[in-house]
Here is the input.
Amino acid sequence: MIALLDFGSQYTQVIARRVRECQVFSQILRYDTPAAELQALGVQGIILSGGPASVYAEGAPQPDPAIFELGLPILGICYGTQLFAFHLGGKVVASARREYGKGTLQVEKADCALFRGLPTKLEIWNSHGDRITKLPRGFRIVAKSDNSDYAAIEHPSKRFFGLQFHPEVAHTPRGREIVRNFVDGVCGCQPTWTMGSFIEQTCAEIRAKVGDSRVILGLSGGVDSSVAAVLLHKAIGDQLTCIFVNNGLLRDGEAEAVQRLFGDHFHMKLKTVDATARFLKKLKGVTDPERKRKLIGVEFVRVFEDAAVSLAKSKKGRPFKFLAQGTLYPDVIESVSIAGNPASLIKSHHNVGGLPKNMKFELLEPLRQLFKDEVRVVGETLGLPKEVVHRQPFPGPGLAVRILGEITAERLKVLRAADRIVIDEMKASGWYYKVWQSFAVLLPVRSVGVMGDERTYESTCALRIVESQDGMTADWVRMPYELLATISSRICNEVRGINRVCFDISSKPPSTIEWE
Ligand code: XMP
Here is the structure.
């Protein structure tokens, strides 16, 4: 296993992914994790991430100095490299600004283990920030770049390496091989981290933890809860009960699809609660987006609790001991909020709510070590269809965040019909799986149109099609006009209540993906 100490780089999770692509488990840990803890974890090598700080800045994140005495190989990336100089007796010159840019690396010591099998000239993605001006003792220069005379350094006997560029990003095309050389070649890690082994091991762990107790899981039909459900079902079969809450804000055919897949196909114990009326009653007359979200969150918990209580009563003496959730690794990584890395703060609002707080369950989170693409592989391995495993994200509050103004049964019907057309056309044209999200939004704007000989006065719908890596930033997709034309004319012709379609050409930031 490789420990990745996080000093606040925006790329920390990308590095962790690169290591796992070598089929070696990697764990992101706080930058100041004590050396003894790393040793206890059985770490075979350490990577020090980049970070926005300057090593000399007040409060700059520092590692436990004892990590340099563990005898383990260490790879420093950018800020991580400066830490060698700072802690082991070199010199670093501070720079006020951090910039990135393309560059060329000239490898001068081809015997360096990091560059084994690679050409001596490499395209790289530089990080222009603080720079080393004097090497710490025992280190040598391995490669130079147009940006730095110390682009790659190493201490051969201690197996310490420092890079002044980012091997983990796509702009460093051979960077994966550099990471692999470190993980396999230098640290000697065996490639044992596969999703097949993960499934076997996790099922055994679930069985050991759960014993003969019962487990409840809120199934949303999204990727994470679906994969968690199938994994748990494989491990404990009928001891798992899934609750699917139809909040009346789902897409066309969604509730039926969940029943078909999990109930009929996988033969899971599935309790579907149709709470449409409850939700719509709560939402009557509400137009404020924050209030909508809050009401939906609170109501969800109530419905879920009611269902869990009534299920528990129906099986006397066998209450649910565990609540399972599809929490993923990015949700559990203890984020390092260092100035300049606000990512962790933006994210949290989507993950609040949805959890019964006053029920006494033990939590079961079988996916908490996995990244999203690993979860998808697990899902596929367990036999979930592509439509589920690769589906686009769909927000918990459902179509409520895509209907501006009041949510009524009638407006839901209109949006569902438009959304169905968007999904069908995106799938038919092969675009659905290429983009992050594609959907229709119903606006509280009516305008004049013509239909045959008649004048219409109906709603406008916006089309939102974006690409994104993680939902934090996004850009609108430059779609072919023909496809936009097909979607637009089908919506205007087939959906009663919409006579105008607009295409949203805003990026995030400053806009968000959902309109709310
Ligand atoms: P925004 O609209 O904030 O959305 O740019 C970013 C991503 O998050 C999804 N989203 C949600 N997901 N519960 C969720 O599970 C929510 O309340 C929620 N709100 C937005 C959105 O679809 C996009 O992928």
In short: The longest strand covers residues 437-451.
